[in-house]
Amino acid sequence: MVEKKGLLARVFGRQGSSCCSIQIEEIPEGENQTANSCCCCGVSAPGSPGNTPGQELETSPATWDSQRTIDIEFLYLDLDACTRCRGTGRNLEEALNEVAGVLQATGINVNLKKIHVQSEEQALALGFVSSPTIRIDGRDIQLDVRESLCESCGDLCGEDVDCRVWVYQGKEYTEAPKGMIIEAILKHVYGGGMEAPAERKAPKELPDNLKRFFAAKRKKEENTAGSKGKQSAEDCCCGISPLSRCCD
Predict the structure, then answer these.
(1) How many Å apart are CA 87 and CA 232, to the nearest integer?
(2) What is the pTM of this model?
(3) Buried-most residue among 2, 42, 110, 167 (CB within 10 A)?
(4) Nearest one of 134, 218, 211 to 177, comparing CA atoms
């Protein structure tokens, strides 16, 4: 049997790791609004009101605060229709499960924030330029932004939209590969990347691609709302308005 070498090999060779060094926050709208906090295995996070007897985490709140922590952000446009966002989110969680034991053994905690970007204003405030995006302590794991036509997002908003293409080991992927995510985390933690989080600089304006997405999505939502209102009027006996006297 060929001996595995290198840090990645030692990670994959580790068995029986615990996922409880990872805390997840789902933020549907706005950076500071937290819909849910839990660890990667679905148990409530340290100090959260959802903890019940028998569900305590191995890492106590006091221990958590005293250890080093990295912040990982997963920013996306849609998790219902977009296959690229769904696949990248799934690969991110699988990657964290792979490295959780190593991180916990060396005293590293992870805060994973899942941020649903729903407006141009929110995208600007977050410095969000391409979907999906993964950041470690404020730094994009792939600075080179490449995109290609995303059919699922096009169906979502009714307009041609490009989503991110990930380049890893000379190949292009429509979902961030698990190996790429693991490598980025380990390089950041063990390759001297534990300095202060990067200062976020909000772009002056959004890329045309995101402008087109939000405009098309807004128009589609307005058309859908208008169609429902028209149908409601047509459903009354006179075809005018449900409030009309002729409907008595």
Answers:
(1) 38
(2) 0.70
(3) 110
(4) 134
